[in-house]
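Render this sequence as a predicted structure.
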Amino acid sequence: MSKATYSFYNTSLSLGSSNRSYGKENILPQRIPQRSRFVCSPFDVDPSMNLLVQPVEKKIWEAVTTLCDNEEHKTDWAVCIDNVRVSMEQLGSSMKMNGKVEAWLMNAFCRKLFRDDHPKNTQKHFFFNTTSDYFLEKWKNDDAKNYMKKKAIESLCGANKARQLHLSDGLYFPSIYDDHWFIFLVDMKYRNTIFLDSWYGKDSTHHKKISSLMIKNFRTSWNDAGLKKVSFENFGIAYPNIPKQKPGNDCGIFCMKYMGLFIPRNPAQCAFSYVDIPMF
């Protein structure tokens, strides 16, 4: 009976779309709830979050940020997760105060999220920044374009094997443009395209240049990968009210926290502020 009900629900409904794909497609676009600025600050820290830095953690941080400048050790591998490697120099320079998070570290973090909890459980996918580089058209010539396209398609197809993308909740693409990190999030469950940016807003020149470009190339890559048809043209575009940074190089750390905490229908989970960044 339960199997019959599941089949009926997923194949018979066609709310807001003529496409009868399974599950996610049958949910109308949902507005992301925003807390009123007259009621509470979006930067209030959830008291349940454990932000206390342990002495041993501080010692490890001091060791890494010191060794990253040491000629003898800076080329040593500090992180290796499924052959995604980060050198001591890359790790330390990213984690220093006012340091810039490097792409290799962001990719290793995405791989860690995958290893910590499989997409079958979280219904989330975290992609390397090389995929969003293709969406941003960062190629220098046709050969580079074809290579990046191939890698983007392989990335989507590989993730689809872990959990089918059209049945997942969210696809997270860490992205860097003009030396600034942000998250391009495709919310498959509630049918929204979401930009999580710690500095720029939707009306900024920054996002006016890239938002439509990323959406267009994501849709093209989806079709080129031969994935199940989804009516992305019906997806909304959202810029949620999220914690913002102060001027500086903290955008990469903010993106890591967004990937770990942000839930489209419960953005209150993503409750921290720029004052917490040194502890993170």
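Summary. The radius of gyration is 20 Å. Confidence is low (pLDDT under 50) at residues 11-23, 36-48.
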